[in-house]
């Protein structure tokens, strides 16, 4: 499977590289992206603000963080597809 195909398949799965935040976290610095967003949305927000991570927001609550590194890491299970 080509890298382009793999990247396209992961585009809609923002949750894959997200690290959950502890309940009640108040992390507010830096850019945010909606939990329904894509990895493209997350990366665009990072690039626009020159940040290395974005906070994922769902229903007005901060629920996780996505980093540049996590976007470009291909999980071993997906790499073998």
Tell me the domain tally: 1
Specify the helix fraction band.
Answer: 25-40%
Side by side, the strands of the main sheet go 1-4-3-2
Radius of gyration: 13 Å
Order of secondary-structure elements: HEEHEEHH
List how many beta strands DSSP finds: 4
Mean pLDDT: 76
User: Considering the protein shown, what is the CATH homologous superfamily?
Assistant: CBS-domain
Can you count the helices? 4
Strand content: 15-25%
CATH-assigned fold name:
CBS-domain
Q: Oligomerization state of this entry?
A: single chain
CATH class: Alpha Beta
**Largest β-sheet summary:** 4 strands, mixed
Shape: globular
Structural class: alpha+beta
> Which runs of at least 5 residues are low in confidence (pLDDT < 50)?
none
N- and C-termini, Cα separation: 7 Å
Can you name the CATH architecture? Roll
Note the main attributes of this structure.
alpha+beta, 4 helices, 81 residues, CBS-domain, 4-stranded mixed sheet
Write the layout of secondary structure elements.
Elements lengths: L2 H8 L8 E2 L11 E3 L4 H11 L3 E6 L2 E7 H5 L3 H4 L2
Parallel strand pairs: 2-3
Antiparallel strand pairs: 1-4, 3-4
Can you give a write-up of this model?
The chain has 81 residues and is an alpha+beta fold. The protein has a single domain, classed as CBS-domain, CATH 3.10.580. Helix content is 35%, strand content 22%. It contains four helices and four strands. It has a four-stranded mixed beta sheet. Strand 2 (32-34), helix 2 and strand 3 (53-58) form a beta-alpha-beta unit. The longest helix is centred in the middle third of the chain and has 11 residues, at 39-49. The protein is globular and about 30 Å long.
